[in-house]
Amino acid sequence: MDTVALILAAGSGSRLGGETPKQFRLLAGQPVLRRTVSTFIRHPRVDAVRVVIGSNDDADYQRAVGDLSLLPPVVGGASRQQSGRIGLESLMEQEPRHVLIHDAARPCVPSEVIDRVLDALQDTPGAAPVLPMTDTIKRGDGRGFATDTVDRGDLWRAQTPQGFEYRQILAAHQAATDRELTDDAAVASAAGMPVRLVQGDVVNIKLTTMDDLRRAEQSFGYPEMRIGNGFDVHRFCAGDQVTLCGVAIPHTHGLSGHSDADAGWHALTDAILGALCDGDIGEHFPPGDGRWRNTDSAVFLADAAKRVAAAGGEVAHLDLTVICQAPKLAPHRQAMRERTAATLGVPVGRISVKATTTEGLGFTGRGEGIAAQATATLRFYQGLK
């Protein structure tokens, strides 16, 4: 194996704020880690990718990148340097010729930067992308006053990925356990390894603050928004409960249908498919097909969500209105929202569930059945695939 990319994602990212570590925050509709990892998976000169994660991050990792073709993750240490060493030691079985070590919080790295690092490794054991210091550098006296101006001629801002000959950087890390160094290039230099500086890129920012996150989102452009509508009706039949949005609600009747007759989820599924321009629920799950008899409608809704993800989008918002005289839905609305959010894998704050009557008019007013209408808003940051 020639080149493995090692993505360091074990940090807490506390400076960005919020409860979710920054590597798992959404960036233009996808987790930061997924955007970072995808760049290296797609690169033709990278043979494999491994992520180093925190000890409590497995569930977040699986949600973010569990479906991608990656080497199994490894749990890192208490510091970036420890995580780098642990990640390098985990590659002993693969024993690549070269390794690229990259911060998960740099999701906008251009493939050209990766190429420049790999090109430099053809005749040197280490390489790091850098940017020149363009601002005047002042030295302070510790009290908030300037003392002198620092010559910036030989000063550079280091970025990642930093690339190395695998065996040499592994040995350098194992020899540097008695001190804390700021990056892998510093570890290499401390071991006497030459590190060539190559041109970085201003778009290759590290996400540290909310301003950084906003700047990074601009790299992916403004989103394309898609809106779809769905409508469904089911008549009452003998029974003692109805199922709406996956919630069993006691009633004097049941609902008649080929599956579980969940009018709420059927309308939401059609709304999502409508926004995708991908047919309707009857096309994907024909009512004449015995496979779908008595099926939990969560199957239909989850399938629609997978189609959104496969097209490179996300569910931005769903609005459902259930139309019936009875049963009363107010006591069940929150449970309906939560079940819908869990099935789609989106925050419950994106799901609206409402109920209304028709003042005794029409088939719903006469108590003959239940209707549901839904609107879905989908967001695509890189155009609909």
Model description:
The chain has 385 residues and is of the alpha/beta class. It folds into two domains: 3-219, Spore Coat Polysaccharide Biosynthesis Protein SpsA, Chain A, CATH 3.90.550; 224-380, 2-C-methyl-D-erythritol 2,4-cyclodiphosphate synthase (60s Ribosomal Protein L30, Chain: A, 2-Layer Sandwich), CATH 3.30.1330.50. It is 29% helix and 27% strand. The chain is built from twelve helices and 19 strands. It has helices at residues 32-42, 58-65, 80-89, 111-120, 166-175, 184-190, 210-219, 263-276, 281-284, 298-310, 333-344, 362-365, and strands at residues 3-9, 26-27, 30-31, 48-53, 74-75, 98-103, 126-132, 137-140, 146-150, 156-158, 162-165, 196-199, 224-237, 241-244, 247-250, 254-255, 313-323, 351-356, 369-380. The strands form five sheets. Strands 1, 4, 5, 6, 7, 10, 11 and 12 form an eight-stranded mixed beta sheet that branches. A five-stranded mixed beta sheet has the order 16-13-19-17-18. Helix 3 crosses helix 5 and helix 8 (263-276) runs parallel beside helix 10. The two termini are 32 Å apart.
Give a short synopsis of this structure.
The protein has 385 residues and is an alpha/beta fold.
Key terms:
single chain, 385 residues, alpha/beta, Spore Coat Polysaccharide Biosynthesis Protein SpsA, Chain A, 60s Ribosomal Protein L30, Chain: A, 2 domains, 5-stranded mixed beta sheet, 12 helices, 19 strands, 27% strand, elongated
